[in-house]
Amino acid sequence: MHPALAAAAEAVRRDLPPAHAPLLDPAVEQRAWWLAQWEDGAELVLGLLAQDVQEAVHAVDPDWPACTESSCPAREAHALFVEPDLGPDPFWTCHRTGLPVAPVGGLHP
Ligand SMILES: [Zn+2]
Question: Residues 9, 45: contact at Cβ < 8 Å?
Fold first, then answer.
């Protein structure tokens, strides 16, 4: 496996509740194919994999991962989203306040 994808899978696994862990492998497989087509995409793969997995989780849990930003008026009541949606160094971000909450892979320090 491409080292960037292996690192991304490890990071997303840290953020993911154990109950949703089975959703990771199919997403990693899809991104392995994508990365094989476009090697330059390596720096984007962490943010993309997190979004792929979030989309899969949202089929069963639309609020994952719950916002924990202390200044947010809707804390614990909405999902964080990955910013930037296409770029390196992605963060789980509260879109109500616009504040980054944790890097992808760092939700549970
Ligand atoms: Zn929020």
Answer: no
- pTM listed for this prediction: 0.96
CA pair distance 101, 103, nearest whole angstrom: 7
Other Cβ atoms closer than 10 A to 70: 9
List the chain domain ranges: 3-103
- Residue-level pLDDT at 109: 82
What spacing in Å lies between the alpha carbon of 71 and ligand 1's midpoint? 8
Could you tell me which of 64, 104, 66, 68 has the C-alpha nearest to residue 88?
104
- Measured in Å, residue 50 CA sits from the centre of ligand 1 at 18
**Backbone conformation region of residue 69, classed left if phi is above 0, alpha if psi is from -120 to 50, else beta:** beta
User: What backbone torsions phi and psi does residue 81 show, to the nearest 5 degrees?
Assistant: -125, 155
Give the distance (Å) from ligand 1 centre to CA of residue 100. Answer: 9
pLDDT, one tens digit per residue, over 38-88 is 989 999 999 999 999 999 999 999 999 999 999 999 999 999 999 999 999
